[in-house]
């Protein structure tokens, strides 16, 4: 079904069954598969491929040579009824690839709202991304990666499968992210080493100076304390019940995960 207000270039192929929303624009030489849903005001500039069981939210804009909704690259892949859901007002630049999920792990890749994907970045099967995230050029997310709201990943960084990246974390360019990165954490290098807190991002988000100082104190207690990271975090929890960002870090550390935690020492050869 194609809305009457949608604008489709005559050179594009829209397969039967696709749904194209109001005021959507499909530029030249695009290919839209039969199980695709483009929301209202979605714009595909040209030479965009959207296939699979893919839903794209209102106002998202996709640039040339992006391939959205392709089968997962897992060796255990089964395409049966797997999906990709992209939220509203995302910008997906040239050459970006995003894959559907795998049956074995829930079947859905999820991308939230207001995200920016720069050229040639990749979102693999079963990833879950929040809102207001930036993936810079050539960022590679392996399968099952979780990226929380407002995280920024620098160009060429690579994230190991099943890794979690916490809210408003900052990943430096060309970094290898092998372990979970706490909310507000900064990680750099290959192998990636936690190098402090994203204080600039916290300030821009409106977190006041006293709260930032409290989070810095908690960070030091967690990573320089006498016990393991998780034991240190559990020991200071009562001290930070009134500090939401610190509690967010403590909850992140306490949660179950398939990966260990990045730290100032993990992976450091020095």
| Overall CATH architecture of the largest domain | 3 Solenoid
The total count of helices amounts to 4
CATH-assigned homologous superfamily of the largest domain: Hexapeptide repeat proteins
Which parts are unreliable, with pLDDT below 50 for 5 consecutive residues or more?
none
How would you characterize the overall build of this protein?
The protein contains four helices and 28 strands. Strand 27 (185-188) and strand 28 form a beta hairpin. The protein starts with 6 loop residues before the first strand and ends in a 16-residue tail after the last helix. 41% of the residues are buried. It has two domains: 7-144, UDP N-Acetylglucosamine Acyltransferase, domain 1; 202-254, no CATH class. It is α/β, with parallel strands linked by helices and 270 residues long. Helix 2 (209-224) crosses helix 3 (229-235). The strands form three sheets. It has an eleven-stranded mixed β-sheet, with no helix packed on it. A nine-stranded parallel β-sheet has the order 2-5-8-11-14-17-20-23-26, with no helix packed on it. The protein has an eight-stranded parallel β-sheet with strand order 3-6-9-12-15-18-21-24, with no helix packed on it.
List the helices and strands and how they pair.
Layout: E1 7-8, E2 13-14, E3 19-20, E4 25-28, E5 31-32, E6 37-38, E7 43-46, E8 49-50, E9 53-56, E10 61-62, E11 67-70, E12 83-86, E13 91-92, E14 97-99, E15 108-111, E16 116-117, E17 122-123, E18 128-129, E19 134-135, E20 140-141, E21 146-147, E22 152-153, E23 158-159, E24 164-165, E25 170-171, E26 176-177, E27 185-188, E28 193-197, H1 199-204, H2 209-224, H3 229-235, H4 244-254
Parallel strand pairs: 1-4, 2-5, 3-6, 4-7, 5-8, 6-9, 7-10, 8-11, 9-12, 10-13, 11-14, 12-15, 13-16, 14-17, 15-18, 16-19, 17-20, 18-21, 19-22, 20-23, 21-24, 22-25, 23-26, 25-27
Antiparallel strand pairs: 27-28
Helix pairs in contact: 2-3
């Amino acid at each position: 079904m194609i809305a009457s207000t949608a604008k489709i270039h005559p050179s594009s192929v829209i397969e039967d069954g696709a749904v194209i929303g109001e005021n959507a624009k499909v530029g030249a030489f695009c290919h839209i598969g039969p199980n695709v849903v483009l929301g209202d005001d979605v714009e595909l500039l040209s030479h965009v491929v959207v296939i699979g069981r893919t839903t794209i939210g209102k106002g998202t804009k996709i640039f040339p040579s992006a391939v959205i909704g392709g089968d997962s690259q897992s060796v255990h892949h089964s395409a049966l009824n797997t999906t990709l859901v992209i939220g509203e007002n995302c910008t997906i630049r040239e050459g970006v690839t995003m894959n559907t999920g795998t049956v074995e792990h829930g079947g859905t890749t999820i991308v939230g709202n207001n995200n920016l994907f720069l050229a040639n970045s990749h979102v693999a099967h079963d990833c879950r991304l929040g809102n207001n995230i930036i993936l810079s050029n050539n960022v590679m997310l392996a399968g099952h990666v979780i990226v929380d709201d407002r995280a920024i990943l620098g160009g060429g960084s690579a994230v190991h499968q099943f890794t979690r990246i916490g809210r408003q974390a900052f990943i430096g360019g060309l970094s290898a992210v092998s372990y979970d990165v706490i909310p507000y954490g900064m990680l750099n290098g290959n192998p990636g080493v936690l190098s402090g807190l994203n204080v600039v991002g916290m300030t821009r988000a409106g977190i006041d100076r006293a709260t930032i100082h409290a989070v810095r104190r908690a960070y030091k207690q967690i990573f320089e304390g006498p016990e393991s990271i998780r034991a240190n975090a559990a020991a200071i929890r009562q001290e930070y019940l009134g500090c939401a960002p610190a509690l967010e870090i403590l909850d992140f550390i306490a949660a179950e995960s398939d990966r260990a935690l990045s730290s100032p020492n993990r992976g450091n050869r020095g």
